[in-house]
Amino acid sequence: MRKKINQSLGFFFLSLAVTVTIFFLSVLLYFIFSRGFRIISWEFLTAVPRKAMTQGGVAPAIIGTLYLTLGAIIFSLPIGLACAIYLCEYTPKSFVVNIVRISINNLAGVPSVVFGLFGLAVFVKFLNFGVSILSGSLTLGIMVLPSIISAAQEALLAIPQSYREASLALGATKWQTIKKIVIPSALPGIMTGVILSIGRVAGETAPIMFTAATFYKRGYPKSIFDEVMALPYHIYALMTEGVHPAQQKDIAYGCAFILLIIVLVISAVAVIIRGVQRSKYGLQS
Amino acid sequence: MDYKVRVKVNHVNFFYGRVQSLFDIKCDIYDKMVTSIIGPSGCGKSTLLRLINRMNDLIPHTRIEGQILLDGKDIYNPKVDVVEVRQKVGMVFQKPNPFPKSIFDNVAYGLVVNGLTNRSYLSGKVEKSLKDAALWNEVKDRLGKSALTLSGGQQQRLCIARTLAIEPEVILMDEPASALDPTATLKIEELIQKLKEKYTIVIVTHNMQQAARISDYTAFFMLGKLIEYDLTAKIFRNPSKTITEDYVTGRFG
Ligand SMILES: Nc1ncnc2c1ncn2[C@@H]1O[C@H](COP(=O)(O)OP(=O)(O)OP(=O)(O)O)[C@@H](O)[C@H]1O
Ligand SMILES: [Mg+2]
């Protein structure tokens, strides 16, 4: 009897937690969608801002966010993957490697504004890239590097040792084993890390505030050394600066709506790719 | 005993860290014979087997003393290319471990990594290997399907086919049938009988009847030591040590 009560109690709390989570998530989505959706129009998506941000569209900010996100992933994915491979496959499990691994995990918890300051000091000033897409992408890339490394490491560690042994026993070299067996099998897991990172990169304000973003720019960036508008920073600026708070707020919700859609679409694409990869050969991981 | 010696294990000691798990092992493995290794769990059967294709290199902090000669050459000589050793000494593992790739790609893998990528050559080779492994008829219509869709017994025969494709000289098998049902086991045993025409086979097994049925020579191990090594018939009918007799008659172990 007692056991039964405990069980129903446990079940009750678990379902309560799920319900609460789903409730807040739905409220959030409803809030953003209902407010943001009103302002969305073809012009809003494709035109440049006009009349001190109160009219026109936010196309440069959308483009800017896409550039920054893409740049960050292009920079951090190969480096992150290479780091993870090196740490998992090439270094024997030792004290030092463990320390490195733990440090990387801790790095993932560093507040993003700290990365922003770092980017300002190193990319903008020291390397003289200026406030630009390049500086912003590199800063965002460094920010997500730890999460990508961790995700890739976990994915690599999940690959059964028997795959590696089988490959080596067939006369493959270590590198062939990694390239042909380990990485393809770990890809779905690595994709998961990338998906999460993309969401973070697209939505972060602090790292780009000093390194890439500008509140207002006439037209589109022409090179990676141009500064850009970006959705998250644009939202922040609309809510804190300017002289038409009421109109600006509507536009801010519109931007938030678009940002959500962008993240959702990118994630969906990644999830689909991952699903295809997984089902292709009945992979479990 | 004037058969050709294919693998010569010469006073081998082996250590996992500081723990010694093989003690002064010495035996000759003969060409185109089936040699089985028997003994209680933890006595070092797998350890010895994995030394013959340098699989234990993958385990950190291990150390070998002595020599293992393949065709007269020490495979632990620093000048030896380990990849070449593994091409000559293939291995089938206890648990079937096909790659998460298609059946075709699994069998072709060992050839592809050695630079043999001609499609028609690969097709021919894959077909032949699958036929030799007695799997062709069951999979010929679905070579493009994932190897993980096969049954356990089929997967193990696929792993054998994959090993045959690279034409090794020696095939090591670590309890290849222990995860399989009696029918699948029988198929593997028949296969081994056929394969010994062309290959030297070393097989670890826990199954006495199996060792007696399929092997020409048998090595009995205990606690990291080679207790007795002789013709299978002798080991099972008239062993020279009582401890061997106790083990093969099932009085302990
Ligand atoms: N990776 C390892 N690290 C440390 N010790 C090991 C390792 N692998 C095996 N050993 C030890 O070496 C000894 C021999 O192990 P081995 O796997 O060779 O036994 P086995 O005869 O194959 O046993 P089984 O019949 O259970 O497979 C055992 O005492 C085992 O604990
Ligand atoms: Mg074993």
- How far is the N terminus from the C terminus of chain B? 30 Å
How would you classify the helix and strand content of chain B by structural class? alpha/beta
Number of domains of chain A: 1
> How large is the share of residues in beta strands of chain B?
25-35%
Structural class of chain A: mainly alpha
Considering DSSP H and I runs of 4 or more, what fraction of the residues of chain A is helical?
over 70%
Element-by-element helix/strand order of chain A: HHEEHHHHHHHHH
Major beta sheet, strand line-up of chain A = 1-2
Can you describe what's shown?
The complex is a heterodimer of chains A (285) and B (253). Chain A is mainly alpha-helical and 285 residues long. Chain A is 76% helix and 1% strand. Chain A is built from eleven helices and two strands, in the order ααββααααααααα. In chain A, strands 1-2 form a two-stranded antiparallel ribbon. The longest helix of chain A has 38 residues, at 2-39. Chain A is globular, with a radius of gyration of 23 Å. Chain B is of the alpha/beta class. In chain B, a hairpin with a 2-residue loop joins strand 4 (62-70) and strand 5 (73-74). The interface between A and B is medium-sized, with 25 and 30 residues. Residues 45-46, 174 of chain B line the site of magnesium ion (MG).
Helices and strands in order, then pairings?
The complex is a heterodimer of chains A (285) and B (253).
Chain A: H1 2-39, H2 42-46, E1 49-50, E2 55-56, H3 59-90, H4 95-107, H5 112-126, H6 133-157, H7 161-169, H8 174-203, H9 206-209, H10 231-240, H11 245-280
Antiparallel strand pairs in A: 1-2
Chain B: E1 5-16, E2 19-30, E3 34-38, H1 45-52, E4 62-70, E5 73-74, H2 82-88, E6 89-92, H3 103-112, H4 119-132, H5 136-139, H6 152-165, E7 170-174, H7 182-195, E8 200-204, H8 208-214, E9 217-222, E10 225-231, H9 232-237, H10 242-248
Parallel strand pairs in B: 3-8, 3-9, 6-7, 7-8
Antiparallel strand pairs in B: 1-2, 1-4, 4-5, 9-10
Helix pairs in contact in B: 3-4, 3-6, 4-6
Bound molecules: adenosine-5'-triphosphate and magnesium ion (MG).
